[in-house]
Design goal:
Blueprint: H1 2-9, E1 13-20, E2 25-28, H2 40-48, E3 52-56, E4 61-70, E5 74-83, H3 84-91, H4 98-103, E6 107-112, E7 120-125, H5 128-136, H6 140-143, H7 147-164, H8 166-195, H9 200-204, H10 214-261, E8 264-269, E9 274-277, H11 279-283, H12 296-302, H13 308-320, E10 327-334, E11 340-351, E12 357-366, H14 368-382, H15 392-408, E13 412-421, H16 423-430, H17 432-449, E14 455-460, E15 463-471, H18 478-488, E16 492-494, E17 497-499, E18 502-510, H19 518-534, E19 540-542, H20 549-566, E20 570-579, E21 584-596, E22 600-602, H21 604-611, H22 615-638, E23 644-648, H23 651-654, H24 659-669, E24 678-683, H25 684-687, H26 691-704, E25 707-713, H27 720-723, E26 730-733, H28 735-740, H29 745-760, E27 764-768, H30 773-781, E28 786-788, E29 796-797, H31 801-807, H32 822-847, H33 861-869, H34 877-898, H35 901-927
Parallel strand pairs: 18-19, 21-23, 23-24, 24-25, 25-26, 26-27, 27-28
Antiparallel strand pairs: 1-2, 1-5, 3-4, 4-5, 6-7, 8-9, 8-12, 10-11, 11-12, 13-15, 13-18, 14-15, 16-17, 20-21, 20-28, 20-29, 21-22
Helix pairs in contact: 1-3, 1-10, 7-8, 8-10, 16-17, 17-18, 24-26, 32-35, 34-35
């Protein structure tokens, strides 16, 4: 009975597969599935939609084919194959694998093929006894043996017995007949049942073979397996329906996601160059759905002529990677109205087994607004807002390039550092508007005097720089200097006034006998300009390298500083850096001090600028700082203070080939220090000096685990192009902008832009120069949480750090501040501008300035803001009170300015009180 039990349990199941109507495999457990062209039974089952069961002699298998439907409309079949040889062999354990012996025997006989009535196959038998065994176990069922075949050996036995005697022949014939009745008939009956087992009657009720033995059980097992396959068919149909439903849900979900992103989907068939794109792909360019042909030529035809070559190159380079990573590129596409849209394309390709690209799928995102914003931001970062001249950022780029060109071409350039004489008096007498008019006019006159190849820049205030390039001899600059002196001294008309300024100009030349950078060239011209002012103003002076007092002073300081390092006159102080939002100390900055034996404590600004040209001394000084800072940090760590330390470096240090190796040796020496607790900090100007080498060194430091901070951000000349390539972890906003943010909205704009830039580059942002609680509040409103400054703590000796960190509490008001929204931002700007207005009024009263501040309530910044915001605050009592207070303040200020000096000084207090009330009302508006 074990034969039947094993068959029913599926123990000898070779393969279970699902095929479609054409015989192609949809699912299979191995590669034994019959293919349509190779299986007449499979074709028969699919065509008749009936179950077919047959015996496969080649593979020694019993095969069941059950037709099914899936995906509601698609027809196919489930194919199950069983190892019939193993079934029989397991059953006849003592017959030594009879099937194999029969197939390899020497005696030939013929049996009729199962499916083809007229074709025969040749087999060999070892001897008649083996054939008898074969006959007894019913192997003829699997072999499809005809009665002629299995009776033929018996006829031979009868002939032999006939020689012996007639009676023996009769007995043999009788035995053969009985065998035919008792064994062959049930087997043939079973074969018939197997052939027609797909009928509904067979499934409904099983009819016994009548033998009541294992052969009868085997027939029942066939029936049971067919029932199981029928159930499997039904379960598969249910699962296919569920999968189809889930697929539809996923399809709808994907469509909603695509629609939500507002991106245009594209699908490029690389074998046919057909290009599918979604409706959004066309509508974002102003086209209607279906306007663009579904060919890749459509995409190339829309590309901006300047972007075609690069866009094609980027696509090909990605395809050449054989699908590694993702494709991403930005380019311009022509909209229907003729304008150009900036598009960010992203996608991924599919490749065949030979790494040939088949299809390319991705998305298009409209980034026109981001590009315009970046363009404007880049222009703002590089140009002076008043004169539109290049600022210090751009000047450094242009000057570096010009120095390279003249040196290569064996030419000269002259750098003119220009400071206006009498400009401060114009501001004091006529006001800032008049001062702006002077600066704008001076800039226009300079631009009119120079050649197209020359450079005109405004550094800030009343300081300008002109670079005359492509000079054959230095004396060629003299006529230009004379014209500048004359033109800039001409009067400038403003309203009814004729204003006069002049210019003190310092000149330095490049190249020089020793190679110098652009900062040194600027300082030389700046020194010469001071000499011109000292000599009486309205003139120019040339920088004299040989006779320069600066060089002499430099040499003296270099010698003294060498001695200071040897005699331990240097010391490090540490200024805390805190998270204002959470009132937590997050780091320290190591700051160098020189305990000078004669001058007392000197700060870096007192001596470093004088020795910057001595690279060896700067490197030696840097190593002293690192060694002592590491030593102190390890001591704190051992005492339980796990804190981050910022260490300043010079451009000379980071441009050393072995700088990262030097750091690694320090970490090996001070093993109590983790690399992620060190952040090296360099000035923005230093970060972009020899950018490629500096960037390479900084990347090597980052690999060690060290962080990179760019210090004094906003005062250098970094362009966005280089800034995004610079390896950095932190931007530190220069303290000059932070200190001024209480009184100038331009400083707020710079800080806000810097914070946004830091977020865009995914780096931290730190504000220096926080000198009051109010400074911290505004910074937090602008999204800057990390800060350092005097209101937090001044730099202190190392032995004070642990106690100070343990006692730090911060300001409770800071924890309540959240970043402002668009409405609150306008209020912040209005508050700062109004504070600036009050400062100008008080300054006018105390210092008797002749330039009156704006007294018209509707014309000042806050007045204009109130007017613009009135429609948004209808029926708001706080806003109405603010408007009344503002009008009262201006009326009082106007009366106060007409009173005597003593009354004015007394009235300042009331003026300030009204100002505080206005600020409170503005604060309430942010809450409401």
């Amino acid at each position: 009975m074990s034969l039947i039990k094993n068959f029913r349990s599926g123990k000898y199941l070779n393969n279970l597969s699902l095929v479609d109507f054409d015989g192609r495999v949809v699912f299979q457990s191995d590669n034994n599935t019959p293919i349509f062209s190779e299986s007449q039974e499979l074709r028969l089952s699919l065509n008749l939609a009936q179950t077919v069961t047959y015996l496969n002699k080649t593979k020694k298998e019993i095969v069941f084919i059950v037709p099914i439907k899936y995906y509601d409309t698609t027809q196919g079949a489930v194919v199950a194959t069983y190892d019939f040889k193993n079934i029989v062999d397991k059953y006849n354990k003592n017959e030594n694998f009879i099937y194999t012996k029969i197939m390899n025997s020497s005696l030939e006989y013929y049996s009729k093929n199962y499916m083809h009535e007229k074709s025969y196959h040749k087999y060999r038998l070892l001897d008649n006894s083996d054939y008898k065994i074969f006959y007894n176990v019913g192997i003829m069922l699997e072999m499809g043996i005809d009665e002629e075949v299995y009776l033929q050996p018996l006829h031979y036995q009868i002939l032999v017995l006939a020689i012996i005697g007639f009676f023996i022949l009769l007995i043999g014939a009788l035995i053969s007949y009985l065998i035919a009745i008792n064994i062959t008939t049930p087997i043939l009956t079973l074969v018939t049942k197997v052939k027609r087992s797909s009928s509904a009657d067979m499934l409904a009720e099983y009819q016994s073979l009548g033998t009541e033995d294992e052969l009868d059980e085997l027939g029942y097992a066939f029936y049971t397996k067919e029932k199981e396959l029928d159930d499997l068919n039904k379960n598969l149909q249910v699962k296919v329906k569920e999968a189809t439903k889930e697929l539809e849900i996923e399809k709808n979900r994907f469509a909603l996601a695509i629609e939500g992103t507002q991106d245009g989907l594209w699908d490029w068939d690389l074998t046919t160059d057909e290009l599918f794109f979604s409706e959004r792909f066309e509508t974002m360019l102003g086209y209607n759905e279906g306007d663009l042909p579904k060919r890749i030529d459509s995409w190339f035809g829309l590309l901006h002529p300047d972007d075609i070559d690069l866009a094609s190159k980027v696509v090909q380079e990605y395809l050449d990677t054989k699908g590694e990573g993702f494709y991403e590129n930005s380019f311009r596409l022509r909209a229907k109205d003729g304008s150009w849209k900036w598009i960010l394309g992203r996608g991924r390709a599919q490749f065949d087994k030979n790494e040939k690209p088949l299809r390319f799928v991705g998305f298009n995102t409209d980034i026109t607004e981001q590009k315009e914003y970046q363009k404007n931001l880049d222009h703002t970062a590089k140009h002076d807002s008043l004169t539109h001249l290049p600022n210090r950022f751009l000047l450094s780029e242009l000057l570096t390039h010009a120095m390279h060109i003249v040196k290569r071409n064996h030419k000269q350039l002259a750098l003119l550092f220009i400071d206006l004489d009498g400009f401060k008096e114009i501001n004091d007498v006529y006001g800032h508007d008049a001062g702006d008019e002077v600066l704008f006019t001076v800039a226009s006159r300079m631009n009119a005097l120079v050649r197209e190849s020359d450079i005109v820049s405004r550094l800030g205030g009343d300081e300008f720089v002109i670079v005359f390039t492509d000079l054959n001899k230095s004396k060629e600059v003299i006529p230009m200097l004379q014209r500048l002196i004359s033109e800039l001294a001409s009067s400038i008309k403003y309203n009814e006034h004729n204003m006069h300024v002049s210019a003190s100009i310092g000149v330095s030349f490049y190249p020089q006998s020793t190679d110098i950078g652009n900062e040194v060239l600027l300082r030389q011209a700046d020194q010469a300009m001071y000499n011109a002012k000292s000599a009486g103003k309205n003139q120019y002076q040339f920088f004299n390298i040989e006779a320069s007092d600066e060089l002499k002073e430099n040499q003296k300081n270099i010698t003294s500083l060498h001695q200071a390092i040897k005699t331990n006159q240097l010391v490090l102080h540490y200024q805390p850096k805190v998270d204002m939002k959470h009132n937590k100390v997050v780091g320290l900055e190591a700051l160098l001090r020189w305990n000078h034996p004669e001058k007392g404590i000197l700060y870096p600004d007192d001596f470093l600028p004088l020795i910057e040209q001595d690279s060896n001394l700067m490197i030696e000084l840097g190593k002293w700082v690192f060694e002592n800072a590491f030593c102190e940090l390890e001591s704190w760590h051992l005492q339980g203070l796990d804190i981050m330390l910022n260490i300043n470096v010079s451009s000379y240090e980071v441009q050393q080939q072995d700088f990262s190796l030097y750091l690694k040796k320090l970490f090996d020496k001070y093993q109590g220090i983790k690399a992620n607790t060190i952040e090296i900090e360099l000035l923005e100007t230093a970060a972009f000096d020899n950018f490629e080498l500096t960037s390479k060194t900084l990347k090597e430091c980052q690999k060690l685990g060290v962080s990179i901070a760019v210090d004094d951000f906003g005062t250098g000349y970094a362009s966005l192009h280089y800034l995004k390539k610079l390896p950095m972890n932190t931007l530190k906003i220069d303290k000059s902008f932070v200190i001024d943010l209480l009184h100038t909205s331009s400083s707020i704009s710079i800080i806000e832009a810097s914070v946004g830039l830091a977020h865009a580059f995914n780096v931290d942002v730190v504000a220096e120069g926080v000198e009051s609680e109010e400074h911290g509040k505004i910074l937090l409103k602008l999204g800057c949480e990390i800060a350092q400054g005097y209101v937090i703590a001044k730099a202190m000796p190392a032995h004070n750090i642990i106690d100070w960190v343990a006692s730090y509490k911060g300001f409770s008001s800071w924890a309540k501040i959240v970043p402002v929204n668009n409405w609150e931002r306008t209020i912040l700007y209005a508050s700062v501008e109004h504070r600036s207005w009050l400062y100008s009024v008080e300054n006018f009263i105390r210092n008797n300035k002749k330039s009156l501040p704006q007294l018209d309530a509707s014309s000042c910044y806050l007045g204009r803001w109130i007017k613009d915001s009135a429609s948004k605050n209808l029926l708001n009592p706080e806003f109405e009170r603010l408007e009344a207070l503002h009008l009262e303040l201006h009326n009082y200020a106007e009366k106060l300015l007409l009173s005597n000096k003593n009354d004015k000084l007394v009235g300042i207090k009331k003026l300030k009180n009204l100002h505080k009330e206005i600020l409170k009302k503005l604060e309430l508006l942010t809450v409401n």
